[in-house]
């Protein structure tokens, strides 16, 4: 049996938090091995798509998926209680959703309910999972309008740091075409961040790239990242990229 994680959807964060940093842990209790995914920067109605190889479920054992949202140790919230789901070797085949309602407590002493949905597939054979993958070539990043005199910009794809941090000014274009293409599946998440050495990094915008059957393969495509950094300043960046069949 094989497990493929597909996506994580944030229905709601804690009532007093705008953003959270959840992590997923996948453990094999028999071998005492564990893989960590995240932490991810998520808000209400955000979806994180996974681009992971399928995981084999032991016939006579199980895989355990743990879910934890951790705040800064210096915050008044502290740690949240983790949530778990077991995927045994005799798990039914199909597509499933697990709901993680997290009870938010810790240092604050209060109780809030957070809700995340994890979507996954269980198949009998690894060959039942489509293996076709794609190559994502980042071509360029242009700063149309910076939010400050200089922005320290970072690009991430599926949570991995792929470019930056670089000081970027309005009007500058950075050539990314010499970078190695990234292997992706039908779903990939591209994020634009601003790095800050003196405080937490800020997620500026997230783009979910969905590869459909009628996708424009081989064409250079634009994605405009834009956000209002202050009531009077609109920042804008243009990423150009190409997707090809591997």
Can you offer a commentary on this structure?
This protein has 246 residues and is mostly beta strands. It has 2 domains: 2-128, Immunoglobulin-like; 134-245, Immunoglobulin-like, CATH 2.60.40.1110. Helix content is 0%, strand content 57%. It is built from no helices and 18 strands. The strands form 4 sheets. Strands 1, 4, 5, 8 and 9 form a 5-stranded antiparallel sheet that branches. Strands 10, 13, 14, 17 and 18 form a 5-stranded antiparallel sheet that branches. A hairpin with a 7-residue loop joins strand 8 and strand 9 (112-123). It is globular.
At the fold tier of CATH, the topology name of the largest domain is: Immunoglobulin-like
- Approximate helicity band: under 10%
What would CATH call the class of the largest domain?
Mainly Beta
Average pLDDT: 82
The first-to-last residue Cα distance is 26 Å
Main sheet characteristics: 5 strands, antiparallel
What's the number of helices? 0
The string of secondary-structure elements, in order, is EEEEEEEEEEEEEEEEEE
- Which architecture of the largest domain would the CATH scheme give at its second level? Sandwich
Q: Which class of secondary structure composition applies to the elements?
A: mainly beta
In terms of DSSP E residues, the strand content is over 45%
Strand tally is 18
Point out poorly predicted stretches: 72-79, 105-110
Rg over CA atoms: 20 Å
Shape: globular
Number of domains: 2
Helices and strands in order:
Elements lengths: L1 E11 L9 E7 L4 E5 L9 E3 L5 E2 L5 E8 L13 E6 L5 E11 L7 E12 L10 E12 L5 E7 L2 E9 L4 E3 L6 E3 L2 E8 L7 E9 L10 E10 L2 E13 L1
Antiparallel strand pairs: 1-4, 1-5, 1-9, 2-3, 2-6, 6-7, 8-9, 10-13, 10-14, 10-18, 11-12, 11-15, 15-16, 17-18
